[in-house]
Amino acid sequence: MNKLMVSVSPHVTSNSSTRKIMLDVCIALVPALIAGIIFYGFYALFLVLLSVGASVLGEFLYNLIRKKPQTVGDCSAIVTGLLLGLNLPVTVPFYLPIVGGIFATMIVKMLFGGIGKNFANPAITARIFLLLAWTSFMTKFVAPIDINNWGNECLKFFNCALNGGGEWINGIASATPLSAYKAGTTDLNLLNMFLGNIGGSIGETCIPALLFGGIYLVVKKVIDWKIPTIFIGTTVIFSLIFGGVSSVLPQLLGGGLFIGAFFMATDYSTSPNTKLGVCIFAFGCGFLTTLIRFFGGYPEGVSFAILLMNILTPLLDKWIVPKPFGYVRKKREKKNSKVVADTAKEGK
């Protein structure tokens, strides 16, 4: 006789799975990766691959050491590695994505119970860890390579593999649009900022590539459209309040706003479970981003904002509890209890 598996609700009613969701996210990140290779050459691809490999290795080693079933097949570690790699400057030495990838999965994710139980987005937490531990490497950006001479320049950033380029990279380092704007520069090339032909992290600069990937995830119903919409909209509103009309486009097109809003703030494990909680979460991300950008010590605030709201997510889920099925308002409850009491008296 065949055995039937009996379990408590909720029951799975679709063919969606963690692996399929993560593969969709990987597909959505491909345009940003291609753009990063076009603008920064093959060393950018090398760093991303190192980050992915280290993230998978960290999860594999944790399960091996703890003698737990292997979970690398769900592809979540690959997504973590991709996001971390795309958030790195192309000038970092090779060991930074390795340290960051292992830290992201082994410490931030697996140590807290694995996928669905981590308190914060692993890629963002690892990026901030690297930023605090290796500030000089993580804040050194360069202008993209010459597209017209791409064949001769696509390998030049391999000089950064051992020591971040040293004196060589100091000669070609350039300010990102956000840091230039914060320093008082207003004549920014907005078209280059939109296309990604600017200094920045590997996968955060090309807005069309990130929009294409984000829309793909929304259409596939992998992410909640409210989070990126409210996140980006709040950033625009408070940029207008804090800096005026001229600050809106630089704040919108510069930095990691789009990759953060579409790919990291939408993490299932670290975002709220209620509609109101999601709206508050996204609003908080946008507000904190602009607050840090305009009044903080760093020109960029997306990662810090998302991490802070990740920490607040359990409180939002605790405070904003959805009404259970069959819920009756307190006034009706009091009225019904009064009716019952009067009926009881009449019966006596």
Keywords:
348 residues; mainly alpha; 17 helices; globular
Structural topology:
Elements: H1 18-40, H2 42-65, H3 76-86, H4 95-109, H5 122-133, H6 135-138, H7 150-153, H8 166-172, H9 177-182, H10 190-195, H11 207-219, H12 226-243, H13 248-253, H14 257-264, H15 275-295, H16 302-319, H17 330-347
Describe this structure in words.
The protein has 348 residues and is mostly helical. Helix content is 61%, strand content 0%. The chain has helices spanning 18-40, 42-65, 76-86, 95-109, 122-133, 135-138, 150-153, 166-172, 177-182, 190-195, 207-219, 226-243, 248-253, 257-264, 275-295, 302-319, 330-347.
Rounded radius of gyration (Å): 24 Å
What is the β-strand count?
0
Uncertain residue segments: none
Query: Ends: how far apart?
Result: 59 Å
Note the overall shape: globular
Fraction of helical residues: 55-70%
- Tally of separate helices: 17
Strand share of the residues? under 5%
SSE pattern, N- to C-terminal: HHHHHHHHHHHHHHHHH
Question: Overall mean pLDDT score?
Answer: 87
Estimated structural class? mainly alpha
Q: Characterize the main sheet.
A: none
Short note summarizing the structure:
The chain has 348 residues and is mainly alpha-helical. The protein is 61% helix and 0% strand.
